[in-house]
Structures are given as C-alpha cells and as structure tokens.
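Help! Submission page says 'invalid entity' but I think these are all valid:
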Amino acid sequence: MHIDINCDMGESFGPWTMGDDERVMPSITSANVACGAHAGDPGVMRRTVRAAKRHGVAIGAHPGFADLQGFGRREIQADPAEVEDLLIAQIGALAAIARAEGASLRHVKAHGALYNMAVRDRRLAGAIAGAIKAFDPSLIMLGLPNSSLIEAGAAEGLRVAAEGFADRSYERDGSLTPRSRAGAVIHDPALVVDRAVRMIRDGIVLAADGAEVPLKVDTICVHGDTPGAADLTRRIRAGLQAAGIHVRAL
Amino acid sequence: MHIDINCDMGESFGPWTMGDDERVMPSITSANVACGAHAGDPGVMRRTVRAAKRHGVAIGAHPGFADLQGFGRREIQADPAEVEDLLIAQIGALAAIARAEGASLRHVKAHGALYNMAVRDRRLAGAIAGAIKAFDPSLIMLGLPNSSLIEAGAAEGLRVAAEGFADRSYERDGSLTPRSRAGAVIHDPALVVDRAVRMIRDGIVLAADGAEVPLKVDTICVHGDTPGAADLTRRIRAGLQAAGIHVRAL
Amino acid sequence: MHIDINCDMGESFGPWTMGDDERVMPSITSANVACGAHAGDPGVMRRTVRAAKRHGVAIGAHPGFADLQGFGRREIQADPAEVEDLLIAQIGALAAIARAEGASLRHVKAHGALYNMAVRDRRLAGAIAGAIKAFDPSLIMLGLPNSSLIEAGAAEGLRVAAEGFADRSYERDGSLTPRSRAGAVIHDPALVVDRAVRMIRDGIVLAADGAEVPLKVDTICVHGDTPGAADLTRRIRAGLQAAGIHVRAL
Amino acid sequence: MHIDINCDMGESFGPWTMGDDERVMPSITSANVACGAHAGDPGVMRRTVRAAKRHGVAIGAHPGFADLQGFGRREIQADPAEVEDLLIAQIGALAAIARAEGASLRHVKAHGALYNMAVRDRRLAGAIAGAIKAFDPSLIMLGLPNSSLIEAGAAEGLRVAAEGFADRSYERDGSLTPRSRAGAVIHDPALVVDRAVRMIRDGIVLAADGAEVPLKVDTICVHGDTPGAADLTRRIRAGLQAAGIHVRAL
C-alpha cells in the first residue's frame, strides 16, 4: 500500500513570503509549484524547484488564473481556448525553470478557482487536460475524484491521480463540505492523521453526518500556508508510515 | 549570398493591437515573438506562432522586462541571476506554446531596454546567454555586432547572429545613431533598401558623416510597428532578392 | 428637449492605443475616462482629461475590474466591500489627475463586466453607489434604465442618469439584445441616428420584434472603439440637433 | 522639544502580509501608507487608513514605482512628467480611501527607488514636489535632509520635513552609510534609542568614523518590516519621551 503527499509550494511573490516551504518539503513527495500567474515569480520558481530537487520531491506545475491580487481564488469568466493557452504558457515556464535545474515535471494540478470551476465545468476541465496533453502527454493530471477534471484527463488519455483532503470534511455524496460551513476544516492533528490513514488503507472517509463514504485517492493534499502546516504534514506522513502505508511520489 | 530578415511580432496584448503582423509575415524569415512580459499574452503568442508557422517563418523568443506599461523599453535595475530566471521562464512559455502548435524555437533575441543594457553590460549579456544555454543550447542568439551580447553568446558556446538595421543611421564606430538625434531613423524606402543591399552584399554601412563603416551581419532587423512597415519590409525583401541575395531564415 | 452623449475615453495603455479620442471628443458631451485598472495609465488619464477640458466635455470616472488583459470585460467574482474599495481608489485617482488639470469630475459610470454584473446584482450596484457617495455624493451615477444600478444610486440619494444605446437592438422587455445574437449591434448610421432621435424625442425604442418599447433616458452612449466611431458620433449629434434636441452634458 | 515618528505601513498585497502594522501603530505618529503601486491594494489601503485613524496616527501617502515584484525598490528609468502623473494618481487614490473613512492626508513620502533617485536627481524631486502641489499644496513633503527632495519641496512652496534614521549609520558628510557596507544598519536597541535621542535633543548623529555630524530632522523613520520592529519602535518612543521629547505628528 502506498500514497503520495502533495502540497502547493512556491507561493511567495517578489518581497512577500507565503508558506514555510523549507520545513514542509521533507514531509511531502510532490510539490505543486506556482507558475507566476497567481503566485510565484521566476526567482521563486527556481528556488522552489531547487528545494524540491534537493529533497527528492517530485515537481509539478500548479497553474492558475493570472490574478495575483486574488491569488487565483476568484472565479474569472474564461473560455476553454483561453484557459488552454494560459496553462500551456505556465506549464512551459515552470518546465523551463526545472530544466535549468536539471529536473523535469511529473504532474500538473490546476490551482484555486480554476480547479474549482473545472471540477464542475467539463469544458474547462477539457481545456486543462488539453493543455497538459499538448505540452507533454506523459504528465500526470491531479484532480478531485469523480469530477470533470479526472474525467477530462482520462478522456485525453492522460494518467490521472485522484486527490483526497485529510483535513477537510466531506459530504455524503463525496464532495467537500463548503468552507463557509462550520467544521469544513478539521484542525485536530490526531483526527487528520486518522482520516488520512482510513482514506488510504480502507478507502473510506467519514462524512460530516457520520456516514462512511467510499473514496479512492492516489494522493493526499496537505496545505502549506496554514500555521502549523509543517508539523501537521510531518504527523500525517509519520501516521501513514506507522500504519504500514508507503509514502512515495506518484 | 544570403540573409535573414527578423521582425518583432506578437506585440499585441489583451484588447490592444500593435503592428500589422499578418501583412509583415510574408516578407520576413524570422519572427521574434513577445513572451507575455513586455507584450503578448498566451492567446496572442499562440496566434503569432500559428501565423509564423503558416508563413514558413522561423520562430524565436523575444523576452523582455516584465513591464507592460513601459513596453519593456524602460531600463530597470536588475541583477544577472534575476534576468536569467526571467528569460528562462519566458522562453519556456513560448516554447511550450510553439510545441502545442507542432513548432519549435529557432532563436532568441532580447527585447528593448534589456537588449540595450546587455549591449553594454557584459554580466547581463552573460545572463541572457546563460538562460538560452540552460533552456536549449541549440538556439541561436541574436545581438548587435561587436557587442557584449554577441561576445557572451559565443563565450557560452551558442551559435550567434549579428543583426543590422537598414532603417537606422550608424556612427563611424559602428554604433547606432541615438534615436534622440535628427536623422537617426531613415524613412526613405529607396534609401533603406539600398542600405540593406550594401550591408549584405558589401559588408558596409554609410555612417552619418559619410564614412564607409564595415559591418558584418547575419540578419536584418525590420520594425513592424511603424506605419508602412509591411510595405517597407516587402520592398527590402524584393530589393535584396533583386540584388541576388537569397532571403532565408538563419 | 435635451440630451447628453457619453462615450468611453482614455482606453489606451502604455504603448497601445485604443479608440480615436481626439476625433470623437468634439461630438460628445461626457467622457467616461478609464482609471488605470482595466485600461488607461496615469499619463493616458492626464492627456484624456486635458483633451476633454479643451473640448468642454464633462469628465467622469469609468472604473472597472483590475484586469488589463481582459479589459475589464471578464466577470470576476467579487464581494461588495472589495468593489467599493476598488472603485473609491479609481475614482480618487482620476479626480486627482483632473484636479491637477484644474478640472473636476461630474459623473461615474462603471465599466464592462462590473457594469453588467451590477445591472443584475443589487449588492454590487449598492457597492458602486456606496463608493460614489463615499467619495463625493454630488457625482452623477450612470446606469441602465430600470436596473439595479439606477435603483442603488437612487437609494443612496445620488443623482442618477439612465443611458440608452442608439446602436444596440433592444428586447420587448427593455433589455439589450445579447451581443451573441445576430442584429444585436446596428451598423446602419441612418438607422442609428433615427433610433437616437426617437429615443429622446418620443421616449420609444423599436424592439427587435418590432414592438414599440417605452424607454426614458438621460444620456446616449456611443462607442468610441469601433471603426467609423467618430463619424457615426458626429452624425448622431447632428441628427439630434436637426431634430431640435439640444445636446449638452448632464 | 518634539518629534514625529514615521513608518511605512500597508505594505501587504492581496493574500500576502508584510509587516506587523497593528503592533507598530501604537508607537508611531505618522503612517506612510502604500498606494497600490509597489504594495497595498484598495482593501489593504482602507484597513490601514482605518487602523491609523483608530490609533490617532497621521496618514500620509507613500507612492512608489508601479512595480509589485520589485516592491518599488528597483530603479526604473522615468521622466519627470511620468513620475508626476504616477504620483498624483496614487496620492489621489489614497486620499479617496481616506475620505471614505472620514480622514484626510497629512503628508507624502516617496518610496524606495523613487525616493533614492529623487534624492540625487533634482528633476525627479521636482516632479514629486509638483505632484504634491498639484494635488494639495497643504500636504507636507518628507525627504532626506539637505537632499534634492527637500530642496524641491521648498522650491514649490511646500512645507517640508527632514527625516532621520536612528537605526542607520551615517557618513561624515551626513549621507547614509550604504546598506552594502557592514554596520550600515544598527541592531542594538539601546544604541538605536540613544542615537534617536541625540539626533532630536542635540541635533547630532555619530558618523561611522566617530565624527559628530550635525543633523536637523523633523521626523524619525522607523522600519516596520524587520523582526522585532514593533518592540524597537516602542523602545524608541519610550526613550524619546524619557528624554523629555514630546512625540507627536508633524
């Protein structure tokens, strides 16, 4: 039994720092690196790629809307052709930076509002999958299980990876509890670790109403920009390993 | 005898159009495509690459400072490491767009203030050459003859190409007459054509003071954003061909 | 009988030009000046204000989403508080530029997607009205007749002005025919002039299906960025004057 | 005897936080608020103005180059007319936000590279002074003592205020020791406090070589973005008050 742990990285910009990449890096196996549109700049991208390489962490592109102020979290009206071009440019920029460091990309995960929109909009999901395929069809596409994202990636013949969130509450239908609802984010580290283990080992997540929901995931997403992120991530990794689950990149 | 004609292309952005790319494209052999930092956006980049491919024009990256408002023409304080990362990201973005169109890059030419600064600053020129080498050492680096740019490219082992300007006045020392001086830009098409022919056929340019200055160039740069650019470019190409000079990409 | 003619102005940015402001200015009475977020930069703003002043044209702020590439025409998720701050900053920037030219603002008209979203979202409309009121409650707020915009302006105690579009087709319910439908934009100048006159003189617009729709407007909006805009605007103004309608600012 | 303490504030942007404004605010008397070009966004500007008002801190505009990634610290080629327009727009934006909070501006201090360039370039300094005068001639202009900035402000008839840096080393000629030199920044809080007191009480600063340099300042600048900034600022204020110096806004 094995699992990947992915985390958004390289979300600093210019003079501003976000996250605690150096301390999170040792606990993860895949880094989703911002590509300069919603966060990151060429220098940040390079330092992040370098750190990932040093820690033996797989490098992926984390493209998003070109919206620094909104951090790519605001939904922006976009047609699929526009999204495809936007993503190809971002993936290409990061791949070039990686090449300069003697590294290459393993996966792509869309960021923020773009991810959320594509989860429910099959055409946007198709644009994301199309961008990946156009750039390098061997890249793995990450997405929410059973969503348009996964469906579009598979339809394009890409290798896809479904991700689960150990620190988020789920609904009975397998969707995430909206962040606006109380209890949407789980803060108790022991509980988060326990949920991660059940997700991987048993393929089950407990829904907010107590129901056991089947959930098959290939990677666990952890959040690097919350206080205590490094510690929580270390505990999740240790917990998974203690449960006999091998933690390794996709 | 042969020569390349290069022109900056894809300098539109969002709702704004610049240049007359469609009408200039048939007369040139190399397109320097803006990479989204000083001009261009992913959609413009893709349309420009597509047009270049349709016209059989070689595609090059034209990276510049990330300064839309100043169009990359303002000098910005930058250290070499920053410039290298900035260029790798831009070249990578354009290369990815090109790949999505089944095309690939042939050359790189720095834009505007970055080009001008690197002409006289060997360290910046080295950063540009370093970026090209890190991304793809088979790309050709364009620059001003006898400048730091050409020197740095050669020092990195890159294939370099020196460019001449048929519509610009030169000084006795081979430098360009500053734009602030009267007569710096030559507007008479017949004269421009004549100067282009002499430059290629005889390796000579007439300086502002009448002196014959030796100048060895591999490519002629034409400007696509001036009124009448398409016509002037067509006349230059026709004039070169009439003089028995084969016009072809680098 | 009198009417105002308003037009979006100052939509150039950095090296890029949009519209033909100098030729349109003589025919209009109110200029909606872009404020640097979706178009315009401080230099463009200043030149536009100066031109408006020279032509005796009333100056208004035309704030929009901070989205240059999308020209403020993409809908962006935004909460009312964010929109209020965004607009205050933009109106303030333009008012300051106007003050430096010895001029002051007369009106505010939201731009593009923000306008369209506020037409149907009373909370966003309230944010726009709130921004105007917070900055200067004597400014006139422009909007679509019978929309949330006009309603919100009135609710805040602002003077409001309803605008009509002589070159746009209307539906039986008084809404604009969506641009995606054939015939949404009317190109025949004679017809446009005729519709402008009927709108002002008779308070009526012919809907796409031939129905006479009552429409009470205080200002006619003309578009400055279409080919022939200057001529069409001149004809509209002349046609209104020939029909005995006095053309003057709000 | 009295002195003002000024500090750069509101330098967060979108999702990124900089500085510890809330903890620094109680110890200062003037806040230089970023205006959205090098840092700050409309929401940050509003929150910063609101906090300053709550703490009874005088509000000033802190305009800089439109360079988020470089945080306004990179020198950018700019002609005076451009700088004037850039500053008017920024000051106007902040003044509008302040007005919405029932507050008004007291001073203007240029930021980063713009400040440094204007210290030695009288024409840029004149553009800054011209912008302030054009917007509101009652605003106080801050600058380095004996620099072009102060000279330009005075020449425009503005009220000027010279600022000193308690945590920076000075040269015998009254200039600041360049940051690139060891000892340029003084970290020992007791020493910083002592230097602040001597500067105000005695009009003297100890140069790096031990010489007593006369220095007449109206305000002390403290830095809010360094670790321990809030504590250091509180100690400076307490030290000044203990020395019988009244701390109050300009």
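Support: the input was valid. A stray whitespace character was the problem, and the output above is from the cleaned input. DSSP finds eight helices and ten strands in chain A.
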